[in-house]
Amino acid sequence: MKQEELKIACIGAGNSGTSHMIWFEQRIPGSVVTFCDLDRSIFDMTIDGYFGKGANISGDFKQDVGGLTEAFREIPFYTNADEMLNNEDVNAVLICTSCDAHAEMVEKCVKRGLHIMVEKPIAITEDDIEKVWDLLKDYPKVSTVNFTMRGAPVSLAAKHHVENGTIGKIVSVQYVNNVHYGDGYFRHWMRTQNRVGNLMLQKATHDFDIINSIIGLKPVSAAAFGSRLVYGGDMPDDLTCDVCENKTTCPMSVYRMFMDASKPVPAPHRRQCVYANEIDIDDNQTAIFQYEGGVNVSYSQSFNAPQQGGQRGGYFIGTEGIMHLKYYNEFVETPQGQMIAGSSSIDITRYHQKPASRIHEVYDWAGNNHFDGTGFGMEAKLALLTDKDTEIKNSIKEGYISAKMCLAAQKSIEEKRVVDLGLKSIL
Ligand SMILES: NC(=O)c1ccc[n+]([C@@H]2O[C@H](COP(=O)([O-])OP(=O)(O)OC[C@H]3O[C@@H](n4cnc5c(N)ncnc54)[C@H](O)[C@@H]3O)[C@@H](O)[C@H]2O)c1
Questions:
Q1: What is 153-231+279-369+399-426's CATH superfamily?
Q2: Residue extent(s) of CATH 3.40.50.720 domains in the chain
Q3: Residue 289 in contact with residue 167, Cβ under 8 Å?
Q4: Mutate to test the pocket of ligand 1, among 10, 11, 15 (most ligand atoms within 8 A of CB)
């Protein structure tokens, strides 16, 4: 299809959905024709922020306002996805609801033969993940999963180093993700199993996908442990820092964190108490995966890293050297949430080389998010919709494999045993 023929709808216009709509609308004015949400308040607050009428709440998808007009507010809005898809003439859909509704929305779009851009994870339960895979594995239209880090220049460079044999044959990987904004996941809907599944499906799914993309091998089995040691408790589910009597004394109050560590105060709908009773997901997990050929990958994520203590990436050990991939090489954010310095790095040390021959590469992404991956990832979606090729396919198969890794690791935590991923039939 030509880009001027694009008629995009969005289902779930929150942080991610609104930002995706804005990206397409800025890039191709008039391309986003309608949207649906149970409640349009996040969309309205985000647009207000863009036009200087309130705080910009688009979080990790922040972008420049250029090209957007106030008229964008007036595109048709629905509270029911079926009603929108029955009434509006659309050919592509962004699915950005909370994770529990992804599978249902994919099914609605498949029934109507629409191009599909679904947020990660593809779904959160075993049945829904298999359903989405069955619906999309041979789908003749575009179907992508939003793995925002795939398009980051540092991710592609690391992948190319391994493909080109710079470190020889992969032997093992040691990878961590210490999330310096981890408390944020416990301040809104992402804190309960029924909406999010678990935090591997929410967070590690990106890292698993990056590891898969870099090493180019297929995972076979998983062993994992997890626990919740920081968040949850017996505070009321509806308590927010705004009304809490411990607003300025509680170390986890968003206001106290701003005072102590200049941590940006999140949007109003993301200020619930991190010690709420309903919190039922783990806040740290460690998993080991065995890949084909006996390659072992260890992975650990924690949601309790301090503001300047975020770490993401790992060591890729090959027969001819080691590659250290660091997403947060340098990172400085203002209390207003503006990133003033940010870069990723790759360091490669090879056997039989003098120290000065080490490879050191820096990828500057200050001002952009997801390590520069959002913009390149969105360009890739546009390329697929307009019948062009791109290296950043973010295919359903990639989304399915990563989701299956998260499920297997969770099952291992619950059943205390090694779990086979059951991917043999598709690999
Ligand atoms: N790729 C990334 O880097 C990235 C980053 C953040 C979030 N996400 C994903 O994006 C999705 C949304 O997350 P978010 O941070 O935007 O959350 P959000 O709460 O800001 O937005 C979700 C929106 O979906 C709406 N919604 C829920 N059920 C719906 C339904 N049945 N019909 C219509 N609308 C419905 C909610 O009202 C809300 O406005 C999640 O799946 C999350 O995993 C991906």
A1: Dihydrodipicolinate Reductase; domain 2 (3.30.360.10)
A2: 3-147+381-394
A3: no
A4: 15
C-alpha distances in Å from residue 351, one per residue of 323, 348, 358: 12, 10, 10
- Identify the residues whose C-beta falls under 6 Å from ligand 1: 11-17, 36-39, 42, 60, 81, 96-99, 101, 119-120, 146, 148, 202, 370
* CB 42 within 8 Å of CB 51: no
What global pTM score does this model have? 0.96
Token representation of residue 410: 């969770």
Residue 19 Cα: closest atom of ligand 1 = 16
3-147+381-394 topology per CATH: Rossmann fold (3.40.50)
Tokens standing for residue 230: 């920081």
Look up residue 235 and give its DSSP letter.
B
DSSP one-letter code for 184: G
Query: Which amino acid is located at 264 in the chain?
Result: P
Give the best-scoring range by mean pLDDT among 51-55, 68-72, 242-246: 242-246
Specify the higher pLDDT residue, 58 or 42: 42
Delimiting residues of CATH 3.30.360.10 domain(s) in the chain: 153-231+279-369+399-426
Q: Whose CA is nearest to atom 7 of ligand 1?
A: 16
The rounded distance, in Å, linking the Cα atoms of 334 and 366 is: 12
Neighbour count for residue 157 (Cβ, 10 Å): 16
Which residue shows structure tokens 């060591």? 315
Q: 16 alpha carbon to ligand 1 midpoint, in Å?
A: 6
Supply the DSSP string of 100-149, one letter for each residue.
Answer: GGHHHHHHHHHHTT-EEEEPSSS-SSHHHHHHHHHHHTT-SS-EEE--TT
